[in-house]
Amino acid sequence: MIKHRTLASVGTLTVAALALTGCAGSDDGGTDGGTTEVSMLVNVTPNLTEEFWNGLVKPFEDAHPEIDVVVQNPGAEGVAAALPRLLTAGDAPDVVQSLPPTTDLAPELVDLSQYDWARSGPLADQYSIDGKYYMAGIGFQLQSLWFYNKTAFEEAGITAVPTTVDELTAALGKLKDAGWTPIQTSGDWATSHSLQALGLPSIVAEDPEWFAHMSAGEATFSDTYGDAVATYAGWVADGYIPKDALGVKYPDAEQAFLSGKSAIYPMGSWFAGTEAKAEEKAEIGVFRAPAVAGVDDPAMGANIASPYSILRSSESQEAAAQLVEFLVTDQAAVADQLEVDGNFRDGYEYEMDALGQELQQIVADTPAESYTPTGQGYGERTLPTGYSDEINAQTQALIGGTAADEVVAAMDDWFASTAG
Amino acid sequence: MAATLSPVRARRRPAARVWRDRLPGIVMGGPAVLVFLAMFIVPMFLAFVLSLTDWNGYSLNFTFIGLENYAEAFRNPRTVDAAVFTAVVAFTGTILCNGVGLFIAALIAGNGRANTLLRTIFFYPYIISALIIGFLWSAMLAPEGAVNGLLGTLGVAPVPFLTEVTFAKASVILTIVWSHFGFNMILFLAGIKSVPPEYYEAATVDGASKWQQFRNVTLPLIAPVFTVNLVLTLVGLLKVYDIVLALTDGGPAGSTQTIVYQVLRDSFANSELGFGAAQSVILLLVTAVLGLAVTLARRGAEKKVAD
């Protein structure tokens, strides 16, 4: 009989042979000469460099000389691909960053419910599974946002930001009449961002259990998302979304909007980080994605910024918990992490420009219960596997000219074959 | 000959001597066989076993679900669409890569300096990373890219190379052909160069034209090269992934997703390692069957060369 661990390890390697692989440095945890080693697997990016991570944990190490934090870089493989390999190889880190808990991953994670800082952190309830808190994060990545070019709005005679979908549609018409490209979107993964920013604020506000109902097959896409898809198709037909948007890469779309070539850009709050670094840019503002008329409290799509979890296999869970508490509560550590990736959290401020301050105000004004997942979802609010790819593909189909009812029917078929 | 051998056959050699004779082969070949088993056969077998499970990549508590992953692979419309597009890429790409490669090889088979330079130029795309090629052509074929800019100066309306389904599929295939035909060309060149010049001299004496020499001398004699080219290209294109990722990221509307693209999405982005393994096994079988079929189909042509 083949042992599960052997099968899983070799199987992972075989399937992953098609993918890029990197090597994460791996050190055994535990105590060595009175020092407890805590390994932390983190995503290393142009913003979040190894130097940044080592600098981030240094104050913690100084305050806890008995704990040595070892930052693990998964390389090009990334945390999401590296963790399964490390788990099956029996070489998992003590702490993992940037991987939100799912029902698949939860059995491998420590339940942090005993810690107040985990229960009361940003989006803690939204990410809980069966009432258990498996992660603690540093702040919010807002999703349901429309960034706008203030000059374009002035030229189009728009004096106030839209507060309903109808007002948004009217504004798009005025922007087009004024000679602007109304909506900037792009191909790749980013296409569906605009459809979700249009639909979810109303859909989830009207049915806070929308994710659960869709997953259980108790609601249909056509009944819940149909109006948003029809509105979106109307935007495409009216030329508010250029048909050639699918040939534009995400970074190029970002630059096009920054340089003032388009009027409105649906994107997450991390765009503010790019905007803050840009030297020549249009004057940009942001407004919360509106719901349809009659919905008083639109849902706000948001993800947790930099979630931390502790692996059950860790031999240093107590030290790991002290490290995570520091990373998600220490004023300076949180502010540093928020700033470097353009994220936000009420009460944790860093030096930010006018756009950042607008976003900080949105965070301060949004009630905790209004936050909702987007895309595939998280915690207990998840949709069937593959939803993100499917909604993105169908949004691209809409831009390509496919009729709204065909797209809605395709999504209904997809849910019928995967939900329940 | 048979009469002299028969007494030897009749005598049984001592077992010790038999093993002594076999020992060098075992010692020298054994490590290679062990490496082959450990690196190829065992992982393939375990990947097959994994494909019978619902493993999500994290928990070790997976369960065996029989052939459900295989049934799902044939039910899932995304996987089916990806398989169809992969087949289109593989067959069309194989024909075009070999057609263009052979054509160019025939044109620049001479020994002139210009031909040497042209060989280098045509082969160059093959040694560039596929990801770089994808990003390069993505920038050139974008709505405001160089190609549409050039068309614009000629008064031609922009072409939706990457934004319309049919054009995007064609763009993926042509980009692959552009990057790959240099490899086919080099193999064909090697084959053409190996044809003895006396054959051409004899054909010339018989009054054969250049086309007739190519058709009746060159083509039959490079039949083995053809087989190698066909199999390698077909197998390579069945696994195409990186160019698609960089050029279209599977879009628009998922129309250019290939089967390997799906395997990686399902395995890692969607945490369905068992399902990903099942698709990998199917791809492995299809690749093996097609490779074998092409080799067998080409056996007749190769036999003529041997004869």
TrEMBL record, chain A:
The keyword Magnesium does not apply. Keywords: Signal, Transport. InterPro entries: Bact_solute-bd_prot1, SBP. The lineage of its organism: Bacteria, Bacillati, Actinomycetota, Actinomycetes, Micrococcales. The keyword Transport applies. SUPFAM superfamilies: Periplasmic binding protein-like II. Residues 1-24 form the signal peptide. It holds the Pfam family SBP_bac_1. Belongs to the bacterial solute-binding protein 1 family. This is ABC transporter substrate-binding protein.
TrEMBL record, chain B:
The chain crosses the membrane at residues 26-50, 82-109, 121-142, 170-190, 217-238, 273-297. The keyword Membrane applies. It is found in: Cell membrane. Keywords: Cell membrane, Membrane, Transmembrane, Transmembrane helix, Transport. Its main location: membrane. Residues 83-294 form the ABC transmembrane type-1 domain. The keyword Transmembrane applies. It comes from the Bacteria. It is a multi-pass membrane protein. It holds the Pfam family BPD_transp_1. Belongs to the binding-protein-dependent transport system permease family. This is Sugar ABC transporter permease. The lineage of its organism: Bacteria, Bacillati, Actinomycetota, Actinomycetes, Micrococcales.
